[in-house]
Design goal:
Layout (H helix, E strand, L loop, with lengths): L1 E5 L29 H20 L4 E5 L2 E2 L12 H11 L3 E5 L5 E2 L2 E2 H13 L8 E3 L5 E2 H11 L5 E5 L13 H6 L9 H18 L6 H5 L3 H14 L20 H6 L7 E3 L5 E5 L2 E7 L3
Helix pairs in contact: 2-4, 2-6, 4-6
């Protein structure tokens, strides 16, 4: 039995220093994860440990550190930071929003390297069940991660730092135990290369998505994403309302995209239709135009 645990099990107090987080396997106790997700993973580790002790079941437990790559979730709020940042950079025109000051640190492991490390761990002759870290030790700030995404197409974007959930201040994989018990860690993909591959795949999804967007989809996303989606809706139908988004910057970032759009009600109205299509009304042309995104 293989159980995929998470770096989120590590105590919050060991990850307050962005430059020197402690994620050594032995530091997990006394337990103090910063989220319920971390507690769930930690409790599950104990369940699988009990299964191994009581029933003799062969168990392996690995703590993954921010695995990313093509074919992963890239929108909807469940995506990891590399995918979210790639999507934001792809759809941005002149700026990209970053939660917090961007100096919080993380390491990210490309999916191919994760699979290889997992197989090495599970197939190793040494009967070591873990838990063990599987992650990269290439720690970067979120600002640097944004720079890597921008470099793919040499985009020049302004970083706009806004309030938002941040998690722990720093997190990085400690691979010393993996080196001792499994093998020398020699990951094939440096972060910058993995970001470039992920960026290319997400861009293909942005360009080829067939999912229609509803009013709720548009008004619950970040404003920058919303305005890009609206512009795409219009451009694909050969329509243009000439919406000036400049004044959106004057609204506080705590307000939702829906609230800010409603402040410009005289320019655009989004109406939720039963068939999940979007109706856009040009206030200077009373004929409503209803269509799906693609």
């Amino acid at each position: 039995v293989f159980f995929s645990s998470s770096a989120c099990i590590y105590p919050e107090h060991n990850q307050m220093d962005a430059d020197n987080p402690n994620c050594e396997e032995s530091s997990a106790y006394p337990a103090n994860p910063d989220s319920e997700y971390g507690w769930e993973k930690l409790f599950s580790e104990r369940l699988y440990g009990a299964l191994a002790r009581d029933n003799g079941t062969k168990v392996r437990v690995a703590r993954y550190h921010n695995v990313f790559g093509p074919e992963g979730t890239w929108q909807g709020g469940k995506e990891k930071a590399p995918a979210a940042i790639c999507r934001k950079v792809i759809t941005a025109k002149d700026k990209v929003e970053i939660w917090g000051d961007g100096e919080q640190t993380r390491s990210f492991l490309y999916i191919d390297d994760c699979i290889k490390a997992t197989l090495d761990f599970c197939n190793n002759a040494v009967q070591f069940e873990g838990p063990i870290n599987i992650g990269s030790e290439e720690m970067v700030s979120i600002n640097t991660l944004v720079d890597y995404a921008c470099e793919v197409e040499d985009k020049k974007l302004n970083k706009v730092h806004i309030p938002g959930p941040l998690g722990v201040r720093g997190r990085n994989s400690d691979n010393n135990l993996f080196r001792q018990k499994v093998s020398i860690v020699d990951y094939a993909r440096p972060l910058k290369e993995g970001v470039a591959l992920t960026y290319a795949w997400i861009k293909s999804q942005v360009n080829n998505s067939t999912q229609p967007l509803s009013y709720l989809d548009l008004t619950t996303t970040q404003l920058t994403s919303s305005q890009n989606q609206i512009d795409s809706l219009l451009e694909e139908k050969g329509l243009k309302i000439n919406i000036d988004y400049t004044d959106f910057n004057n609204f506080v970032h705590f307000s939702s995209a829906q609230t800010r759009l409603e402040n410009f009600y005289d320019k655009i109205v989004l109406i939720d239709l039963d068939d999940d299509s979007v109706q856009i009304i040009d206030r200077q042309n009373t004929d409503p135009i209803a269509f799906k995104r693609f």
